[in-house]
C-alpha cells in the first residue's frame, strides 16, 4: 500500500513522525509532503529519515520528473492522509484551492483522502471550520478525530490530533462494502487476569490484536461498536466505545450489561477458571513446603450466556486450539450455541500476540478457510463473511 502523508502547520506536526513510523512498521510505502507552515514545526530531514524517501514541499520542483511532481504523487498514492490538518488547510481544501503542493495534489488525486484535524478548541468549534468540514465530508473526505484533552495552548477540549496509532489503524483497515449502519456490535478482546493475591494473577498470551482489528473492521461498516477488553497496550480504534476490564467476572458483567447487541463477537481468551479465594495479602514463600496449591473455580461462560439471550444476537466465537483444531471448534460451536466459530490454530508464530492469523470459519451450513493474513485484513474478510451468513439466515 502507498500512502501519502500531508503535514500542515501546527504543534501536532511532531506526531506525524510517529504516524509515518507506524505506517512503515506495517509495510506501507510512505511519501511525505509538508506545507510551508509545517516546516516550522518538523524538519524535512527527520521525516525523510523515518519515511525513507525524499520529502516534498514545493509545487515548483525542477528536479522532480518533468516538474510535474504533484501529478506524479497524486497518481502514485493509494490513500492520502493530512495529519495534522489545520483550520487553514481544511479551508483551502474545502474551497478547492491549489496554492501549494499539498492542496494541488489533493485536487489532482483520485485516491481517498482522510484528514486528522488539530487546532485550538475555539477554532475547532468555529462555524467556519465546521462548515468547511461538512463540505469536505459531503465530498467523501474521511475525518478522524480530533480527540479531546489538554491542548498545547493549555486549554482543555476537542481539537487534539488523534493518536498516530489510531490514525494508522484506520488507514490500514481495508475498505469494506458491508453496511451495518444502525446495528450494534459488541466484541470481546484480549485475555483476562484472574488474581491470585494483590500482586499476582493467572493470565494468557492474548494481546487483544485480533479483537481490536475486528472492532476497527466492524466500525468501518458504520455499526456502533463496543469493545470490551482485558488489559492490553493497544490504542482504541477510532469511533469505537471501549470498556476496560480485568477479570472474566468483570467481562461477563460488562457484556451482559449491554442492552443493544445485534452481533456479538467473542475474540477474547477468557480464563475458564479463577482462584476461588484470592489471598488478601501477598503470598509468602515458606521454608517448609515446596508446593503451593491453588483452588480454582469455573468462570461463567460469557458467549454461552449471550447465545441464550432473547432476542438472540448473531454470535461469533473463536476457538484457539493446539490439536484437533476443527473437531474441537465444531464441538464448541454446538455446545456454546455459537452461530459462527473461527477455528484458530495456535503455534509459536501464529494467533496469540502475533500481527497475523489464520482461521477456518465454521457455521451451520458451511466452512471456509482463511489463509494467513495480517489481522486487519483478516478481520475485514470475517466481517464480510458474517454479513453473508446473517443474510442467508
Ligand atoms: O489477542 P490476540 O493476541 O490477537 O490473539 C487472538 C486470539 C488467538 C486470542 C483469538 O483469535 C482467539 O482465538 N480467541 C479465543 C481464545 C480461546 O481459546 O477461546 P476458548 O476456546 O477458551 O473459548 C471459545 C469461545 O468462548 C471464545 O469465543 C471465547 O471468547 C468464549 N469464552 C470462553 C470462556 C468463557 N468463560 N467465556 C467465553 O465467552
Describe the 3D structure.
It is a single chain. This protein is an alpha/beta fold and 393 residues long. The chain folds into 2 domains: 2-172, Flavin prenyltransferase-like (Rossmann fold, 3-Layer(aba) Sandwich); 184-392, Rossmann fold. It is built from 13 helices and 19 strands. Strands 12-11-8-13-16-17-18-19 form an 8-stranded mixed sheet, with helices on both faces. Helix 4 crosses helix 7. The chain is globular and about 75 Å long. Bound molecules: ligand PMT. The site of ligand PMT has 28 residues, from helix 9, helix 11, strand 16 and helix 12.
Give the CATH H-level superfamily of the largest domain. CoaB-like
User: Could you say how many structural domains there are in total?
Assistant: 2
Instruction: Please identify the oligomeric state.
Output: single chain
Molecules bound to protein: ligand PMT
Roughly what is the average pLDDT, rounded to an integer?
93
Supply Rg: 24 Å
SSE class: alpha/beta
Strand order of the largest sheet: 12-11-8-13-16-17-18-19
Between the first and last Cα atoms, what is the distance in angstroms? 36 Å
Unreliable stretches (pLDDT < 50, length at least 5) are none
For the biggest sheet, the summary is:
8 strands, mixed
Within the CATH hierarchy, at the fold level, what is the topology of the largest domain?
Rossmann fold
What portion of the residues fall into strands of 2 or more residues?
25-35%
Give the overall shape, derived from the CA principal axes: globular
Question: Can you tell me the CATH architecture of the largest domain?
Answer: 3-Layer(aba) Sandwich
Number of helices: 13
